Structure of Cation efflux system protein CusC:
Amino acid sequence: MQRRISRELKALSVLALSLALNGCIGFGGIAPKGSMLPANTLATDEAIQSAAKDANWPKAQWWHAYGDPQLDEWISLAVQGSPTMAMAAARVRQARAMAGVAESAESLQINADSTLKRHNWPSDQFYGPGALDNSTTWDNNAALGFSFALDLWGRESNATEQAVDMAHMSVAEGRQAQLELQNNVIRAYIQLSLHYAQLDIVESTLHQQEQILDLAQKRLDGGIGTHFEVSQAQAPLPEIHRQIDAQEEEIALTRNQLSALAGKGPGEGARLKRPTLALATALKLPSSLPAELLGQRPDVVASRWEVAAQARGIDVAHAGFYPNVDLVGSIGFMATGGSALGFLTGKKLNYNVGPAISLPIFDGGRLRSELGVASGGYDMAVAKYNQTLVTALKGISDQLIKRESMEKQQVFAAESVQAAQKTYDIAVVAFQRGLTDYLNVLNAQTLLFKQQQIQQQVQAARLSAHAELVTALGGGLGAGNDVPKNDRYVPDKPPAVMALFNH
């Protein structure tokens, strides 16, 4: 009903009251100062501009590109069982309930009140002589009270919209929490795969070293080798066994980490098998439209809703300066004397109805302070949104640069492994034939071991960079489909009549 009241009625009412009470409180020049950065105007670097134009947007379950069913299972476990997600869901429910509380102020309010009591009437000058003099009677009443806020200036409706915007923000923050959780699970899972791959390398190195030791022992037994060569071949074995134990420790710790991310105990992680994802998996680049990229991030969407909510907060603060009109009334029964329930007869019915008008004249600066708080909150929300945009664009650019670098490093790392493997094979053959000493074999083996580890680390870093990039793009959660309308990011303009007493 309040939304059907014409602007002319509002203007006339406030003009009349402002002229009669020209000393009422004005805004005092208090207003927000922040402005939102347009996402399309932010300069993008070459990394973003040169990203593949024909690539696809991240899908909702983009990690399927890794081709590991166990990874799919544990991401599902994490989303369903993580305490982090439970807290995010609770915040959403809380925000929606708060929106319901705010919306209730726009509805008709009905309250019931009833009292039944015995009343002793004294005999004195105040009451005087009469029928009730020095007597005890029933003094009962029952009534229904009604009140309805006309909301001429949108205080209640803006408060409702503010609460609804905050609920939307909580939903977007929940998506952000989900995205971060998925990213953490994927990164931990990639590390688990890396530890297994490095364990394979160390165990292969152990096997190679045992073969070299056997060869050195055979050369000694054949009279062409030395005890020094055998000792040299034996020396690396304890260190290789230590590295094997270290990798097994990392595997166990990573399993515990995945269990914690999924909201499970360490025992649940023991059933984790070796990942089947290939560290050399081919992955597609996402689209390169900066504005659209930013709009898919849940944190950007959450910041937008916060700005909209703070704008409505300023509207609520503005409404406090204007005359407030409520409709109030009551209907009920009351009686003094008679039986205990005699007051419920039709003759005892009474009612009242009418407008209740209030206008702040002096409040010690409370309204202006509240407007200052709302304006400061809006400016902080705008600054937070602007910072989120800048950070988001930097994050996307960083991951694009890192991914491009990892692609190049992967090629170089593979070439280094091939060269190191060739050197090691030549050194072993030469040692077998007595053409070189064991030191060259050891050096070649150490180089091969190092290059193999670097190759696995580069491949894992490439997969992690892909996960970080998809996360920076919003992870396919579709947060950009739930954003405020463009006209909701700034407060509504106060009525022009307020300029008459805005001091």
User: Anything to note?
Assistant: The chain is about 55% helix and 10% strand.
